[in-house]
Amino acid sequence: MPFPDNLEAPAKTMLTNENGVSRTTHVIEDSKTQKLRLLTPKECERINGLPDDWTNTGMSDKKRYFIWKML
Question: Model pTM greater than 0.90?
Fold first, then answer.
């Protein structure tokens, strides 16, 4: 797996441990800061074909990461 993830390639499968850091976590290079970072909940929604802020119901980001993986 490339590190950081290639933003020009299709996203790899998202796993239920996405709210933590592991070998399978999506890590990208921020185009503005050139620093490595994790995907935001909104970016995860987009990868999964959901509307922006679909999981934004007032719950924590950790729960937002988990909820779209249950679909």
Answer: no
Q: Where are the domains of the chain?
A: 1-66
The pLDDT tens digits of the residues spanning 6-26 come to 988 998 887 765 556 777 778
- What lies within 8 Å, CB to CB, of 51 at 6+ separation is 45
Residue 26 φ then ψ, to 5°: -75, 115
Residue 16 near residue 69, CB atoms below 8 Å: yes
> Could you tell me which residues are beta bridge partners of residue 38?
27
Q: Is the peptide bond before 4 cis (omega within 30 degrees of 0)?
A: yes
